[in-house]
Amino acid sequence: MKKLLILLALLLAACDDTPPPEAAKPATATAEVGISVAKPAVLDLFNVGDSVYVRALAIEPGTNALWVGTSVGVHEVDLDTLQIRQTLTRKDGLANEYVFAIGIDKQGNKWFGTNGGGASRYRDGEWQTFFPMHGLADYWVYSFTSQDDGTLWIGTWAGANRVNPLTGQFSTYVKELINEWVYGLAVDSRDRVWFGTEGGVSRFDGKQWVSWSHADGLGGGNGSHLSPSRNTGLGTRSRHDLGVLSGGQATYNPSYVFSIHVARDDQVWAGTWGGGVSRFDGEKWQNLTTHDGLAGDIVYNVMQDSKGIFWFGTNGGVSRYDGKNWQTIGLAEGLPDSNVYALVESPSGDIWAGTRAAVVRIGIQPSKSKE
Question: N or C: which end of the chain has fewer CB within 10 A?
Answer without folding.
Answer: C
